[in-house]
Amino acid sequence: MKTDQRLVAAAASLLDTGGESAVTIRAVAQAVGMSHNAPYKHFENRSALLRAVAFQDFAALTNAFAEVRQLRVRPLEKLKQALTVFVSYAQEYPARYRLLYSDPSIAAQGGDLEAAMKPFAEVAAIVQECQNAGDLPDVPNVELTGLIYASVHGLIDLQMGGRMRQEKGLTDASKGVELLIKLLQPLRDSGG
Amino acid sequence: MKTDQRLVAAAASLLDTGGESAVTIRAVAQAVGMSHNAPYKHFENRSALLRAVAFQDFAALTNAFAEVRQLRVRPLEKLKQALTVFVSYAQEYPARYRLLYSDPSIAAQGGDLEAAMKPFAEVAAIVQECQNAGDLPDVPNVELTGLIYASVHGLIDLQMGGRMRQEKGLTDASKGVELLIKLLQPLRDSGG
DNA sequence: ACCTGAACACCGTTCAAGT
DNA sequence: ACCTGAACACCGTTCAAGT
Predict the structure, then answer these.
(1) Which regions of chain B carry the CATH code 1.10.357.10?
(2) Cα three-residue angle B50-B51-B54, rounded to 5 degrees
(3) Is A164 in contact with B124 (CB distance < 8 Å)?
(4) Measured in angstroms, what separates residue B22's CA from nucleotide C10's C1'?
(5) Taking the CB of residue A162, how many other CB atoms lie within 10 A of it?
(6) How far apart (Å, rounded) are the C-alpha atoms in residues A45 and A50?
(7) InterPro entries, per this entry (chains A, B) (predicted)?
């Protein structure tokens, strides 16, 4: 494994075990057995290292969504599974999720954020299938996908931050996702 | 103005001008003219100071929502205005918004997060009015409000992070909010 | 190319005193 | 009660060298 990759792996591991603040350049260096400033030969700064972790995971998410898209199930079922992947990823790796979807370090820099768009594009393709099947409303695909994507992110983010355990309400994000999909159905048979 | 309040005000000001990382205990102390460690006589640590800023703004948001609720307009119009308040606040004070709705410092500690629930409760009341008027679907109020709240947060958060400027799509969060409300209408007259 | 030790300018936080 | 200076253990980052 190349040094770059070892650094990224170490950073990801520290992220998982100790959260973002645990990912110090010094700790990463120690984890791979270098002196405290050696990482600067591989990454411009701490931000760049974190971005490398994020891009690796954007790619992994993209693959996961692409796999879901190829399943032989109803479009709406694909969408549900894709969103479940999203929620599960966030629950299993909360710090990574925050890095990818809430951290200012990853914010729009230049062309870099293309990687961040790929998972979105996969979900958009699934949403389009749902729209073609009449399972989601006939509005511009990008807008609808943006809304769904944002809603799921919001549910995850608020849940992780403990800002939404209002009474019994939405204890977990998956319940919110279910409701979202249900309410977006263009035609609903009444109740139950 | 009491010293506590001056510290909170200075912290808020630094937050607005330089972002979260600019709110160092030392900078806050300097801003109010104390020595670098004097703030510790007023707040247990940096996190507690940030929480004080957040609670102040949770209260302000609660008031703003409460005012909207008392307007003499259609329920759905109230909801639109309330969500506009939300989006505008986030756009005008992005760092504060992140502190209130995305920062782990504010995450569920103990009873403190009651303050964070008050804006939610105001929105829930408006949503209930909409439901009573038949302008929003007849599902449990807390769940529906949670979904709307989370969706708006997600739109704001993804927009701020530059993670959603997919082509023309959702350039700004307000467009997403519009679409959300439109799609949540239980009865829609076709198109246009 | 890749690694190292020393150093700088910051942090949050604590402590022993001062008024 | 409220404030202070000195100090500790961290950071990110830079630099002059070493192999």
Answers:
(1) 50-184
(2) 90
(3) no
(4) 12
(5) 14
(6) 9
(7) Homeodomain-like_sf, HTH-type_TetR-like_transc_reg, HTH_TetR, MT1864/Rv1816-like_C, Tet_transcr_reg_TetR-rel_C_sf
pLDDT-based confidence at residue B168 (cuts at 50, 70, 90): very low
List the single residue in B with minimal CA-CA distance to A154: B154
The C-alpha atoms of residue B60 and residue B63 are separated, in whole angstroms, by: 5
Mutate which of B144, B151, B180, B187 to disrupt the A interface (most A C-beta within 10 Å)?
B151
Q: Would you tell me which residues 123-162 of chain A have a C-beta closer than 8 angstroms to some C-beta of chain B?
A: 124, 137, 139-140, 142-147, 149-155, 157-158, 160-162
- CB of B7 within 8 A of CB of B42? yes
Contact A146 B166 (CB under 8 A): yes
Span(s) in chain A for CATH 1.10.10: 1-43
Determine the Cα–Cα distance for residues A76 and B171; give it in Å rounded to an integer.
Answer: 26
Note whether B179 and B171 are within 8 A (CB): no
Q: Indicate which of B97, B99, B102, B187 best probes the interface with A, i.e. most A CBs within 10 Å of its own CB.
A: B102
Helix (H, G, I), strand (E, B) or coil at A25: helix
**A39 vs A10: CA distance, rounded Å:** 11
CA distances from B117 to A68, A131, B35, B146 (A): 36, 36, 35, 11
Identify the band that residue B170 occupies on the pLDDT scale cut at 50, 70 and 90: very low
Lowest mean pLDDT among A76-85, A141-150, B87-96, B97-106: B97-106
Closest by CA position to B99, among listed B178, B180, B14, B185: B14
The dotted CATH code for B50-184 is 1.10.357.10
The CATH number corresponding to B1-43 among 3.30.70, 1.10.10, 3.40.50, 1.20.1250 equals 1.10.10
CA distances from B176 to A185, B41, B184 (A): 18, 45, 12
d(CA A12, CA A31): 11
pLDDT digits (tens, 9 = 90+) for A162-190: 777 654 444 688 899 999 999 999 864 44
Token readout for B119 is 């804006």
